[in-house]
TrEMBL record:
<keyword id="KW-0862">Zinc</keyword>
<dbReference type="GO" id="GO:0008270">
    <property type="term" value="F:zinc ion binding"/>
</dbReference>
<feature type="compositionally biased region" description="Low complexity">
    <location>
        <begin position="217"/>
        <end position="236"/>
    </location>
</feature>
<dbReference type="GO" id="GO:0005634">
    <property type="term" value="C:nucleus"/>
</dbReference>
<keyword id="KW-0677">Repeat</keyword>
<keyword id="KW-0479">Metal-binding</keyword>
<dbReference type="InterPro" id="IPR051712">
    <property type="entry name" value="ARTD-AVP"/>
</dbReference>
<dbReference type="InterPro" id="IPR057602">
    <property type="entry name" value="Zfn-CCCH_PARP12"/>
</dbReference>
<dbReference type="InterPro" id="IPR000571">
    <property type="entry name" value="Znf_CCCH"/>
</dbReference>
<feature type="zinc finger region" description="C3H1-type">
    <location>
        <begin position="76"/>
        <end position="101"/>
    </location>
</feature>
<feature type="zinc finger region" description="C3H1-type">
    <location>
        <begin position="132"/>
        <end position="164"/>
    </location>
</feature>
<keyword id="KW-0863">Zinc-finger</keyword>
<dbReference type="GO" id="GO:1990404">
    <property type="term" value="F:NAD+-protein mono-ADP-ribosyltransferase activity"/>
</dbReference>
<dbReference type="Pfam" id="PF25261">
    <property type="entry name" value="zf-CCCH_PARP12"/>
</dbReference>
<feature type="domain" description="C3H1-type">
    <location>
        <begin position="76"/>
        <end position="101"/>
    </location>
</feature>
<feature type="domain" description="C3H1-type">
    <location>
        <begin position="132"/>
        <end position="164"/>
    </location>
</feature>
<feature type="region of interest" description="Disordered">
    <location>
        <begin position="216"/>
        <end position="263"/>
    </location>
</feature>
Length: 276
């Protein structure tokens, strides 16, 4: 079992998979899977609605510059990746590459262990790793009341009008819970998302929500960067601060009642645990 094999299997399952299912697929013990996941930045382990899941992620991006010598990213047409480039079969060729096996792309994919992925698996991985490929969820829509919440752009908004709570789990509010509703559907189609990809949008956006929360989660402990690395070794000063010395040395109280989010280290790396 290799890291590349795990990434490929997860991408074939729309970018995430339950921890138990992954163990069953490869016939592993927990310790064996942990040894691979723990040392890799290609995975995030998270508890989603009480279920332990493994989510695939990559640092690979599509290059936004057409001619970029020495680039470490893929030189590939985004719409070809999505399967919606209108120049793919036409007489007039696309000015962006449609070749995954070109020298540049082959080097990048091999360097990141992604050279065994097919086009759809690569598309799944990049869409949930590179947040510029899909429209962001409109936070203004998710605040306030009414058809468009507080979104000033209303029907013309280029962001996705979908319920954020729905992406994180069950929700029965009046906001959109269906990617096929008129506004979400049009917004995604305008970005080149095909009918085939529409079927996996819920999974992808749910994965993106988890990955974003993981990257923003604070450390569960450690020194305060604003106080400097030697703050704990300093003696209390005289006067007013001296009277606070003993109080300052008291250990902080730990709140054990909340399990909404728990991480041991800040991002990166990407392979730590998160509770949602």
């Amino acid at each position: 079992m290799t890291e590349a094999a795990i990434v490929k299997r997860i991408c074939a399952q729309n970018g995430s998979i339950s921890y138990d299912a992954l163990i069953s697929m490869f016939g592993l013990f927990d310790e064996a899977l942990d040894s691979v996941v723990a040392r890799s930045e290609s995975f995030t382990v998270a508890f989603v609605n009480g279920q332990k899941k493994v989510i695939a992620r990559s640092k690979v991006r599509l290059c936004r510059v057409q001619n970029c010598p020495g680039c470490a990213n893929l030189h590939l047409c985004k719409l070809f990746l999505f399967g919606s480039c209108r120049f793919d079969r036409g007489r007039r060729g696309c000015r962006f590459s449609h070749d995954l096996l070109s020298g540049q792309n082959a080097l990048v994919l091999t360097a990141h262990g992604l050279n065994t992925l097919d086009l759809k698996e690569l598309c799944i991985l990049l869409m949930q790793s590179d947040y510029s490929l899909l429209p962001a969820v409109c936070h203004s829509y998710n605040n306030g009341t009414g058809e468009y919440g507080r979104c000033p752009d209303a029907e013309n908004c280029k962001r996705l009008h979908i319920c954020e709570k729905y992406l994180r789990g069950f929700c029965d509010c009046t906001r959109a819970h269906d990617f096929y509703e008129p506004h979400p559907l049009k917004t995604l189609q305008d970005r080149g998302v095909t009918a085939e990809l529409m079927a996996v949008m819920k999974d992808l956006y749910a994965n993106i929500e988890v990955l974003k929360r993981h990257s923003k989660a604070p450390a569960a402990g450690g020194p305060n960067p604003r106080r400097g690395p030697n703050a704990q070794n300093r003696r209390p000063s005289s006067g007013f601060n001296a009277g606070r010395g003993q109080a300052a040395q008291k250990p902080p109280q730990t709140n054990t009642g909340s399990t909404y989010m728990l991480l041991r280290e800040p991002f990166p790396p990407l392979n730590k645990k998160l509770y949602i």
